Structure formats: structure tokens, C-alpha cells
Amino acid sequence: MEAENAVFTENLGRIYKIRGAKKNESKQLIALEGVNLSIRKGELFGLLGPNGAGKTTLIKILTTLLAPTSGKANVAGFDVYKEADEIRHHINMVSGGETSGYGLLTVKENLWMFSQFYGIDSKIANQRIKRLLEIVELSDRTNTKCAELSTGLRQKMNIIRGFLTDPEVLFLDEPTLGLDVGASRDVRKFIRTWIEEQPQRTVLLTTHYMVEADELCNRVAIINKGKVLACDTPTALKHTLRKDAIFNIEVNSEAPFSVDSLRKIAGVIRADKTEEDGFSRLEIVLKHESVLSSVIDEFHTLNLRIQNLQKREATLEDVFVALVGARMEEVEHAEFAED
């Protein structure tokens, strides 16, 4: 089974020791706990979770930059602990927000230099560089110094660096972090095209962008607090909530109101409110569509006037909330507040 997979982990764990912890504080941080993953060859696999969920720790272990505390992991058929040198010949990695590259060198010079670190024939390297620059629409910056590139263009160069070696397994850790909408779209299109060109190529993508995971990945593992909570295709994950009825409702009110009374209605799974300019937007998840009549009755009690009501399909965001009990941004905000 392990040989059939590009990546395989079994009860993988990683614990960090916290230096200078106070007497009543924990002296260790569990970054990963019992992670079991099987990523097939040729798969574009997504690891979806908030900042601090353990995604980068997992990537570092799989790319031999960090040793696991427990369990085991294989990449391209080799053990990450015992055969790290072998693994490095088969993989590459790109992280979002990297500042790699030398500012005084041009884009082409930087990429050629990295190609030589990997021992790629100069002629082949130049051919790949030319083609990859064209694909990500960076050809017009071939002779631009790296220091003169915007954040988005520099990240495109980093993306090329990862693909330049034509790795068997490519790890992309938040590759579109900090990019604008257009640049993110270009990068996603490039990733999809690259893996479709050769069926043996494998990509492990970490992200906290729901749309990115849904749009790109064959399968997605949702991770939080170091544990994998679910793993399946985006469609299958969303189908787990198929029985739930999800409504987006816009209401007007003459006075501020609380959604607590809505949450107390039998059959209401979740009720959230955001304030917009001149109205309130509600997102309500019901066990059955029939519960909507009770919700509308409560609207009348609260003197709320419905402006718009729409039923929508479940998203990966809904799946995450169902598993974790909070939205992605709420989890990240809570982690930041604790720090």
C-alpha cells in the first residue's frame, strides 16, 4: 500500500518543547497528533486548515526539514527519517510569502542559478525557464532585477523555481499567500495544467483558502489543532451536509437585535449575523427546510422585515464549521488572541 502512494503517513506526530514556560503553563506544544494520510501518485491533494493548524509542520516533516516525534512518513517510497537524502532528489517545495532570490540578479539569472544547484543541464534549464516564464506571464520581466519585482511577481518567480526541477512530488505551502486575485488565479491555473501534463506528478497543497481547495484539489484533508478531522473529495465532504438546509437572509430592523432566540429554535443548527449598510445579513443552517417557518415566525416577533431570502448549497466553509464549531477566521482570531 505504501509503495502505491506518493506520500504516506501513519500515526505521525510532532511535539515542540516550549522554553521558558511558566509553572502553570504546558511545557510542550502538540503540533501534529496521529496524522494518517495516503496521497496517491498523480493526485492534487489539499491540506485545508487555519494558521497554526499544523500544516507547515507536516510539510517540513515530509520535506525532511524536521524530524517527527512519533509515527512514520514515506515520500516517493522513502522514509523521511532514514532516507532523507533520497527523498530530496524527488521533491521540491514552494512556500507563500518567501523572499528567496538575490535582488541584484535578474529573474532569469536567479532561476538559472537555482537550476544549477540541482545539477540540471544548462540547455535544458534555459528551455524550462523560458517556457515557465511564458506560462505564468512573466516573460516581460526576464531581465528585471529581483529587487525591482512586486510581491506578486516575486512569488510567481518562486513558483517557477519549484516547478523548474520537474519534481516527482511538489509541496506548495500557501503558494498564493499575499497575492492579488489575478495573480492567485494565474498560479492556480498553472498548478492545474502542470499536474495534468503528466499523470505521475503529485502535488500536496496547503491552504486556508476554501475556494482554492475546492477549485484545485482531487481530495482535501481538513486539519485543525494538529489533527486530521476529515478527508475526502470536496464534493463528498459537502455532501455530508446535504440534509442540512442553508439560507442566506437579509432583514431590516428598526432596532438592534440578537440572534440568540433564533439559535434556541428546535432544528436550528447555526445562526450567524453580520451587519451591512442599512440591513443585517443572516446565515442560518437548519436540520430540515420545514424549520424555516418557525424561523420566520421569530422574525415577526423580533419585528424583522425580510428583504431577501435564498437557499444555497453547502460549501467547504460549512463543512469546516460543522467539524470545528467555528469559522476559519474565528479560529485564527482565537489562536492569535491566545498568543
Q: Could you tell me the number of beta strands?
A: 14
Low-confidence stretches: none
Alpha-carbon Rg, integer: 23 Å
Distance between the termini: 40 Å
Mean pLDDT: 89
The secondary structure category is alpha/beta
- Strand line-up in the sheet with most strands: 6-7-8-3-9-10
Q: Give the topology string: H per helix, E per strand.
A: EEEHEEHEHHHEHEHEEHEHEEHEHH
Biggest β-sheet strands, sense, barrel: 6 strands, mixed
Plain-language structure description:
The protein has 339 residues and is of the alpha/beta class. 34% of the residues lie in helices and 29% in strands. The chain contains 12 helices and 14 strands. Strands 6-7-8-3-9-10 form a 6-stranded mixed beta sheet, sandwiched between helices. A 4-stranded antiparallel beta sheet has the order 2-1-4-5. A hairpin with a 2-residue loop joins strand 9 (219-224) and strand 10. Helix 3 (107-117) packs parallel to helix 5 and helix 4 packs across helix 5.
